[in-house]
Amino acid sequence: MATIVALGLAAAVVYGTSDFLGGFASRALASVEVTFLAFFAGTLMCGALLPLVATRWSLAALGYGAIAGVAAAASIWLLYSALALGPASILAPMIAVIAALVPVGYGLSRGERLGSLGGGAIAVVLISGGLLACDPGGRGARPSARALLTGLAAGLATGAYLVSLAFTPADSGAAPVLVEFAVGTALVGLAFVAFRPGAPGQAQVNRPVLIGRTAMRLAVVSGVTQALADVLAIVGIHRGDLAVMAALMALYPLGTLACAWVVTRERVSPVQGIGIVLAVAASAVLAAGGRL
Question: Which has the closest alpha carbon to 275: 138, 98, 129, 117?
């Protein structure tokens, strides 16, 4: 279990950093541009990581990897769009909670049991999600209805992505992740051609060249870290349990929030702080299979 916990926590930290970088870059570039650059860089990163992970190619690895690519393309595009709308301190935890509940719910529907505390932990996760999206003092920025709906869609798509990884063969290693990024790059590339700024029917985006180039670099780093996190995630899922890994990776907003506090000076209310503590505690119980 120690190895699974280490993989899950490492994936969470890297995911959190990747999401913040992608969301921050989406404030200067269109989300579809950021997503395309991230997927392209992630594909190259996966190719570099492939020799380091025991990998076996099969039709199942290709098929479920392709399905994961569709889900990942949707989830990352929606995630970057939501974080660009902001504020990240509210949206990132909400998305993480939703994304964790999807695979946990799938596992329960398949007969998995989390133990006596599992049901209570899931209830606490739901409560913490509400607290994280609450700012009773009105001191911080409040997400718009569009941001909340985009975040909800991002969470559902991310949860579907994690479930699709669980279907990949245990001996496939990083092969499905490489297929995922290749498929995602192709899909987002088509979307980029159709919806890029300046395309027919699209509004022109005026931005300083320096800021645009910096955002492009952030998008590339976001894709590299996303690929690393995905490899850590699939190795952990193959070695352990989907619900456990999903719960551990639900801690990724802590990395996103830390970046938001340092870079954009976003503030977190006391109620949100309580929500963070509850989310961490509930994730820890779920990670232990509800046997604490």
Answer: 129
